[in-house]
Structure formats: C-alpha cells, structure tokens
Amino acid sequence: MTETGHRFSPHTAEHGFEVWAPTRDQCYAEAVRALVASFASVPSRAQAREVRVELAPACEEDMLADLLEEVLEVVDDRDLVPVDVAVEDTADGGLVAEMIVVPGDTVELVGDLPQSVAVDGLSFRHESDHWVCRFLVED
Question: Which are the contacts of 15, defined by CB distance < 8 A and separation ≥ 6?
Fold first, then answer.
C-alpha cells in the first residue's frame, strides 16, 4: 500500500471509495481528493482561492460525512471545485479544512456530481501504521 492514496469503484447508483494515509488528517484530505477525482479533472489553478470549512467535534465517521457533504455543497451551491485541501484538528476535537478551489467552469467534468454521501457503509479507523476510511456516494 502506498503512503497516501485512494481507489474507487463505480456501481449503478453509487460509488464506493477506499482511502488511506499515514495520519488521520491526511486521510480526511485524501477522501476529499478522491471524491473530487470521481467527477472532475482540474487542468489549472489560474483562478484559485481558499474556502475554509469548520466542523464540530464528532466521531470520525460523522466528521467524514460532514466534510464530504460540505465539499458537495461548495461545488453545487457555489460552483467551486476543490483542487487541494489541508485538514487539521481543532482544539475542541473538531476539524478545519482549508480548500483551494477553482470556478466550476475551469474544470473538465469526468463524471456526475454525487448527490449525497451514504450514511451506511462509512468507516474510519486506524490500521497498524496508517488510517483507512471507506464511504459511498449516491448519484
């Protein structure tokens, strides 16, 4: 297994993702990258800017679902697509994600924008020397 990465498998109405990274925060960030890679290819960062998302403390699975839903909202409501992300813990146990985003019309769509993150099938855990999360999104 490589240091940080992801794989996904399209199904009829869902996409399944598996993401891994050496740290918890990197695993959250890679989950965002995996989600975006399922529907967009970003050729340039010419018009990039930053969007900050703060999440309240919760279990890892709930924070993963909340983070991915925030990404879908940024894409759908604001027509901005994340091209990079950094995630850090907050002092109260929540998360802050700083996403570098570009306008939606500057990316190439390679798939349908998922409509939501499925509540079933979420997992986020530490396995030996890395973190692994799994999730499904619904088209």
Answer: 8, 9, 38, 114, 136, 137, 139
Whether this model's pTM surpasses 0.90:
yes
d(CA 129, CA 133): 14
Question: What are the helix and strand counts (H, E) for the chain?
Answer: 2, 10
Architecture of the structural domain at 5-138:
3-Layer(bab) Sandwich (3.55)
Output the pLDDT for position 121: 81
Domain boundaries, given as residue ranges, for the chain? 5-138
Please, which pLDDT band fits residue 111 given cuts at 50, 70 and 90?
confident
Q: Where are the beta strands (DSSP E) in 3-79?
A: 5-10, 14-21, 40-41, 49-55
Give the torsion sign (CA, 64, 15, 42, 48): negative
Backbone angles phi, psi at 103, to 5 degrees: -60, 145
Residue 113 pLDDT exceeds 60: yes
Size (the chain), residues = 139
